[in-house]
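User: Once you have settled down, look closely at the record that follows, taking as long as you need, and be ready to discuss the fold:
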Amino acid sequence: MKISPLIRAEFARLTSSRIGIASLIALMTVPLVYGGLYLWGNQDPYSSLDKVPAALVVQDTGTTVDGTRTNYGEKAAKSLLTDEKFGWVEVTAAQAAAGVKNGTYDFGITFPSDFSARLSSASGDSPRSAQLKVTTDDTNSYLSTTIAKQAAEAVRVEIAKEVGAEASLTLLAAVGDLRDGLVKADDGASTLADGAASAATGAASLSSGSSTLASGAASLSSGISRLDAKASSLPSSATQLSSGASSVASGAAAASSGSATLAGKATQVATLAAGTRSQVAAELADAGVDPAVAATVDAQLAGVSGATAQVGAGTSSLSTSLGTLAAGAAQVSAGAATLKASAPALSSAVHSAATGATSLSSGAGELASGASALGSGTAELASGSATLESSLSDAVAKVPVTTAADRQATADLIANPLAVKQSAITQAANYGAGLAPFFLALASWIGIYALFLLVRPLSRRALTAVRRPIRTTLAGWLTPAMLGVVQMVGLFALVTLALHLPVANPVGLVAFMAFVAMTFAAIVLALNVLLGSVGQFLALVFMVVQLVTAGGTFPWQTLPGPLAALHQALPMSHAVDGIRQLMYGGLSASVWSSILPLVLWLVGSLVVSVLGAMRQGRFRILRELRQSPIGA
């Protein structure tokens, strides 16, 4: 017997009664009902979020920023109510809490009373983070909690953008003012550097002069100290000098008087000598003394008379000189007396001068030291001023000159520095289109599974009479496979025509879905042939495992290790991947990489089914030939 008669026989068996036809139609619609309803219900839930009731509580009392009253909470609430992304209802805090708890609202967002104050605290001394309170209750829906967090995050981002722009603008304005201050400081630093250089030069001259002054003061102090030491004995020396001068004056006066007396005596002696000479000459002449002898005697008396005259003259001159000496000595004595009287005051003055000179020397030394330090300090000041001027110039050059428009543009950029530009190689049209590959594959398995509740895996008569297991297996596979293809064509029509989900490659997708249905039919057939009713039950378990590992919702990489390993091995994973590529317009190579594992599953399952058919043909018992409840 050929394959086609076997298939016709099976279809005849399935449609042999009204209940059989009804059952077949009902099972054929299972994937359409499952896949169609689910995709319809989840086609685009994000476009209907405005139907989600959400409580909005504004307790913000506002704040004053730079003299302007503002209320960030009211602004944000007004924006939320205007956007209408959710079914916002502005209520009190108590109403929000009660409403979220009893399910009136899926979630609630509250702007606390200090919301604006905390947002503006960044410009003060005690910055504090503002808080946005989100109230959720997972008994309403876990996804509502997730959506509430996303809504709160969107509010946070918008407010952070607004506050960030304002803060950045304030900061940039302050930077502009700072630059103006730096320019002025640079000018001042330049003047300071010039002045400091002049001061350093003057300080160096002062230091040099102070050193000279200190040296001179030290010499002066030393000399005056020595003078002071000498002047201490000046009063007594002056007294002695006065006394000696007085004695000299007195002695000189006495000597002058004696010299005058002596001069008178010498004159008398000279006169007497002259008389004596004349008398002697007369007596010698009278005595008849040889004239020569008389001449000699006369000469000798003449010498005596001359010497006597000279003594008288000298004595007279001495007397005159002694008189002069006495007068001078008297003057000296008078001066010495004056000196004696003035010596104590002079000595005291010299001592005071010595003390002052010592202080002057010490002060000059300190002045020299201070002037030296001043010189070093002013030199450092000049160097530091030059460095300051250079640094300020560099700082001014690094701070750009901006206008109000520039600062506003920069503030906007700082508040929102990153814009995400999505470059989608392929893209699902909406949420339903995103889930469609998974549910189309799942619906295909469910449809095949349901068909095997009605379709007989292998013809028992063929197994008994024909004993050709390959033909019998192919006939057993093609019957549910063709029905599965019809299911997939109907599901494709429902998805594209009724739900209007876009498909990039419709011909390829419907063909791939048909191939997936045929593969799943081979797998379920093999389980039924190999294990009977137990295999049918395992087909259900197999579906559950694939439902978890197919990666239809979350990326399969998020699965635990053992389940992630099954992802690559199980057929539904490749069915989902292939449908994605064809539905979104992916790569043909990726489609073929999904087809190859499915071909292996298809061929392997058919081989297992043939082996099972061979075994059943060999060990088949008469009990298996009993009449089917829905017809032979």
